Structures are given as structure tokens and as C-alpha cells.
From TrEMBL:
Residues 155-182 form a coiled coil. Keywords: Coiled coil. SUPFAM superfamilies: DNase I-like. PANTHER family: BNAC02G09200D PROTEIN, NON-LTR RETROELEMENT REVERSE TRANSCRIPTASE. This is Endonuclease/exonuclease/phosphatase. The lineage of its organism: Eukaryota, Viridiplantae, Streptophyta, Embryophyta, Tracheophyta. It comes from Solanum commersonii (Commerson's wild potato). Signal peptide: none annotated.
Length: 215
């Protein structure tokens, strides 16, 4: 009759969480993650009268990182108990059909961006329900997704940007030979500043690649 959180029981005497510490320790040592559920919050009921009726979430699905890697869209639905004291669990799985795993790449150059810390804080401080392990897992998963999206918006494809600026600067320098105006010189100055910025980012990425093996 063990639970992981006080919120996983309703009715009856106050549950003593000390009874669950060993159970929680085993889950943590095994690196298991509670993948949550949909619909009713409890899976067991003692079917007693109103004053003594107790509900608990005794049944759950726990997986490890490897499972989430291959079945990232796994969901659990609590079905009606239909005369039993336990509710059946319906598991639905969607296999990751990608031929290779996409690893999250944290770029060192991100920390120099003025918006980086605020982006991380805003993402990390959003509320997540569940036990501490599940909260940590989903916060990290959400953060990697947020940073990947942020990087694409903030920088785009670094190598493409470098090539684009090189071509744009080349054309601007050619035009400047026949159209030497203040406006064009200012534009060229700005292009060179952005170009140098992306060159430094590209250099940082190359330096990082010499230290890490990326697949």
C-alpha cells in the first residue's frame, strides 16, 4: 500500500511518508521515472462506506531513460475500475522511428548571450507536477527543447550565416568601388561586425568539437 507522494491518497488516516522512504530509494537507485497518467488520480479504492473510504494511487508505470529514448510518447490512462478495487492501466506507446539518436548539444557560446540566463530561468521556473525525479526529468527535457528552439531563433545555422555574410560583404565591397556613399559604408561596417560575431561563434564550436565526440 505504498505511495510516492502525500497527494496520492485521499480519505482515511494521514499517510506516514516514512513508510515509503525505502521504496523511493529503490526507485532512485534503479534510475526509474514515473511517466505520470491521465484521467482519475487514483488506481485503488477500498470500496468501504463514505466515512472509511480510501483512495490511493498504488499502480503506476515506471521506465528508464532508454525506454524514453525509444518510446518518448508513452502515456498511461487510468481506466474505470468496473467492480474491482483496482483500476486497469492502459499504456499507449509511440516508437521513435529515427535511425539514430539526436543528442542535445550545449554550445559554450550561449552563455555569452545576454538573453541566455533569462531564457533558462523562465523555462526552469515553470511548475511541473509529480515526484522529484519526474519533475527533474521533465524540466531537463523541456529545457533542452527550449534552448534548441532559442538557439535556432537567436543564431540560425552558424555555418550558413558565416557563408551568407561572406557573400553579402563581397557584394557590398564590389558595390562600394562604384558607389562610395556614407550609407553603404555604414552598412558594410555593420555587416563586418556581425560577420566577426559569427566567426567567433564558429571558432568556439570548432574548439568545443575537439573536446567532445558528437554523433
Amino acid at each position: 500500500m505504498l505511495i510516492l507522494l502525500k497527494e496520492e491518497t485521499l480519505g482515511g488516516l494521514t499517510y506516514n511518508m516514512n513508510k515509503s522512504f525505502e521504496f523511493i530509494s529503490v526507485i532512485e537507485e534503479c534510475g526509474l521515472i514515473d511517466i505520470g497518467y491521465t484521467r482519475l488520480p487514483f488506481t485503488w479504492c477500498n470500496q468501504m462506506e463514505t466515512q472509511t473510504r480510501v483512495w490511493k494511487r498504488l499502480d503506476r508505470s515506471m521506465v528508464n531513460d532508454k525506454w524514453l529514448e525509444f518510446m518518448p510518447q508513452t502515456t498511461i490512462e487510468h481506466l474505470p475500475s468496473v467492480g474491482s478495487d483496482h483500476s486497469p492501466l492502459l499504456m499507449e506507446m509511440v516508437r521513435n522511428n529515427e535511425s539514430h539518436t539526436k543528442y542535445f548539444k550545449f554550445l559554450y557560446c550561449w552563455v555569452d548571450n545576454d538573453n541566455f540566463v533569462e531564457t533558462v530561468q523562465n523555462c526552469w521556473n515553470k511548475e511541473v507536477t509529480g515526484n522529484p525525479m519526474r519533475q527533474l526529468h521533465y524540466k531537463l527535457k523541456r529545457l533542452t527543447s527550449t534552448l534548441s528552439t532559442w538557439s535556432k531563433k537567436e543564431y540560425g545555422d552558424i555555418y550558413d550565416k558565416v557563408n551568407e555574410y561572406e557573400e553579402t560583404i563581397r557584394k557590398a565591397e564590389e558595390e562600394l568601388l562604384t558607389n562610395n556613399t556614407e550609407e553603404l559604408r555604414q552598412q558594410l561596417h555593420l555587416m563586418n561586425a556581425n560577420y566577426n560575431r559569427y566567426l567567433k561563434i564558429e571558432e568556439s564550436i570548432h574548439k568545443q568539437k575537439t573536446q567532445l565526440q558528437w554523433f
